[in-house]
């Protein structure tokens, strides 16, 4: 790995490169952000693990809309790109059952409100054909996802809630957050999936909802491998061999994703990029990309920014700077691989699921 990227000057991202058909704007497919939670729970300290303290100094007027806000992701910042964004409803570990379901419904309400408010700029998508149509219309494409399914309990409510997820056009569910829930255990714990969790994997698949293994521990990942019959994703996880955080994926996990037709989203979270630099450098991110490409091949790596859920490198904050990363990937790996990471691999994954 060369260090040429370290000498590049700081400048605003230029949204060029990638697929130059239609509008010529760079295509972006990001598998994870937490922006909806920041909007839904702004100013509400009662939400466990919420953003009230983090955003206490931000006026409510600047955290009330996907169009323009003081979060990392906004439609205004995405406008220079042809962007497909997975918007997550993050449910913290502290909330379980009905309380967790109530948080999901609050985030869902914000999502539906923003879709209606900004119908001229944002559209819900479920299929790759939808994405193409939305981008052709000059809009941002949005998929609704869930991070942390602690509202699913083995108490007779799960089937109805799974049906509601499908009706709400939820396209992907991260089974756990960092701790334990009724489905299994996150990376802070050592247990795998429960018997109920294995059933839920199959029930999610039956409803065409993608299973997401980010946040699971290694035992839980192996259990998903045994239970799953369809390709699954790690929506926002990096390479553990580069940065040893347990949230990252070991090489064997990256190979499993490759063998199963899955994808892994490159996470911009500073803690998951580098153990050396508090503000990871361009080369720190390139090392992650290089490792995942070498271990899993060119078809696995996508984007899973984790915008609005963590601190990200200053040169990638906020989201309109993402073009800088594409330029780095083109310089280091070539335009074809850069485009695969930025859009094509995620697009191909969802296309495979539809086939």
| Shape annotation | globular
Major sheet description: 6 strands, parallel
Rg result: 19 Å
The protein's oligomeric status is: single chain
Report, as a whole number of angstroms, the end-to-end distance: 38 Å
Runs in which pLDDT lies below 50 for 5 or more consecutive residues are: 1-22
Secondary structure: helix percent: 25-40%
How confident is the prediction overall: mean pLDDT?
93
Based on DSSP secondary structure assignment, what is the total number of beta strands?
A: 9
Please state the structural category.
alpha/beta
Task: Please characterize this protein's 3D structure.
The chain has helices at 35-40, 75-78, 97-117, 128-136, 158-167, 195-206, 218-227, 251-259, 270-273, 282-296, 322-333, 335-354; strands at residues 27-33, 82-90, 122-124, 140-147, 170-174, 210-212, 233-234, 263-266, 301-303. It is α/β, with parallel strands linked by helices and 355 residues long. Strands 1, 2, 3, 4, 5 and 6 form a six-stranded parallel β-sheet that branches. A three-stranded parallel β-sheet has the order 7-8-9. The chain has twelve helices and nine strands. Helix 11 (322-333) packs across helix 12 (335-354). 51% of the residues are buried. Helix 5 (158-167) links the parallel strand 4 and strand 5.
